[in-house]
Design a protein that fits this description.
single chain; 374 residues; OB fold (Dihydrolipoamide Acetyltransferase, E2P); 5-stranded antiparallel β-sheet; 8 helices; 22% helix; 33% strand
């Protein structure tokens, strides 16, 4: 297991120890409101829906984050399924909703905690980040703020700290999955970020059957939920499900099927007997591409981009993948991948300003410094 980074003080380890679920006494839309979750005192052999009370908005009303807890009749491992830390990344919400609607809790050994939409503020605002509304406004990327500090000035940073202390950091999970998508005007395939140095994480990537897996140390994502869970000894992955601001049935299905496979692998749930699902997964797994470096190709001028590639395409560095036109339809510039590899992401809006992503290409670098990801 990777060593805990020095910024995680001894005091923060205390959040991994269970404390009783704290009920506020309020009921919201028929479900109890809590300020802290402890799965050991949630009813067994049941699915329980709760609201976590977090920070307050500009009129002093509390934000409430939905939580669903499935606890089986017997104890076992504990799984976290999180979604929408970025408010425009919605596919994972439907994964979590469907998962808890379909699970037969009588067959479950252990506990699964699901969060069907954690960045309530971002969803209200229709954007990726948490919007702090003081001064002229500022943005907080919740997925760079864990484990957080409740004394921080910014409301978004307080929000992240409350999520950590109330759900993520205090239930001794066996494994964690954080569902995301690509950001607005871009799209991913079925894609995973994973630190393969962490025990069990490689197995988790296998179970996804994802199109592409980025071998990644997390150095560019310090404070992300995946990386901080890893640092606390909880194997975790960031699972990217396609494009933002939509529900893509194929991506949702893959995220859903993975969650059940993962439970089975953790000895929490019986394996599926659906031969079609098994065959589909085996075919997907055979095609999974592991890469350790990606680099984007950006526009240098504004205009209209026509793409000649799509995600998952194998490309060479001398292959034309896009062309920029001016308002009259005249060619302005051509775009090429930075190296031979696979198209990981594309910009899917024809309107591009200078500096916008055209494509992102992933490959396996032979540089020893990139062995674990760069």
């Amino acid at each position: 297991m990777v060593k805990i980074v020095s910024i995680l003080s001894a005091a923060l380890f205390a959040t991994l120890a269970n404390a009783a679920t704290v009920y506020t006494g309020d009921i919201l839309s028929g479900h109890k409101v809590i300020s802290n979750l402890d799965v050991t005192d949630i009813p067994a052999n049941a699915v329980t829906k709760l609201w976590l009370r977090v920070t307050k908005d500009v009129v002093g009303q509390s934000y409430h984050v939905p939580i669903i807890v499935a606890r089986g009749p017997t104890d076992g491992n504990r799984l976290l399924l999180n979604s929408a830390l970025h408010g425009e990344e919605l596919n994972g919400i439907r994964v979590v909703q469907r998962f808890f609607a379909d699970i037969d809790v009588s067959k479950l050994k252990g506990v699964v905690v699901g969060v069907p939409g954690s960045n309530i503020n971002g969803m209200y605002e229709g954007q990726r980040y948490y919007l702090n509304k003081y001064d002229s406004g500022s943005l907080t990327n919740l997925n760079r703020e864990f484990p957080g500090n409740i004394t921080n000035r910014a409301a978004g940073k307080k929000f992240a700290a409350t999520l950590w202390s109330g759900i993520y950091g205090n239930n001794n999970y066996t494994a964690g999955v954080d569902y995301h998508t690509q950001s607005l005007t871009t799209q991913f395939p079925n894609f995973v970020y994973a630190d393969l140095r962490v025990p069990y994480v490689y197995r988790m990537t296998e179970l996804t059957g994802a199109d592409i897996i980025k071998v990644d140390t997390g150095e560019s994502a310090v404070g992300s939920l995946e990386i901080v869970l890893d640092q606390f000894g909880i194997p975790a992955i960031t699972y990217e499900l396609g494009a933002p601001k939509r529900w893509q049935k194929d991506q949702i299905q893959r995220g859903y099927d993975f969650a059940f496979r993962l439970m089975t692998d953790l000895n929490m749930y019986p394996a599926t007997t659906d031969t079609e699902k098994i065959a589909t997964y085996e075919a997907q797994k055979k095609k999974s591409y592991y890469g350790n470096e990606f680099v984007s190709t950006y526009s240098t001028q504004g205009g209209y981009v026509e793409l000649y590639t799509k995600v998952n395409d194998r490309v060479t560095k001398d292959q034309l993948v896009g062309r920029l036109f001016n308002v009259w339809g005249d060619k302005v510039e051509d775009y090429y991948p930075k190296f031979d590899g696979v198209i990981l992401s594309i910009g899917d809006n024809p309107l591009h300003e200078p500096g916008a992503q055209i494509v992102e290409t992933i490959h396996n670098s032979t540089d020893p410094a990139c062995f674990n990801g760069c």
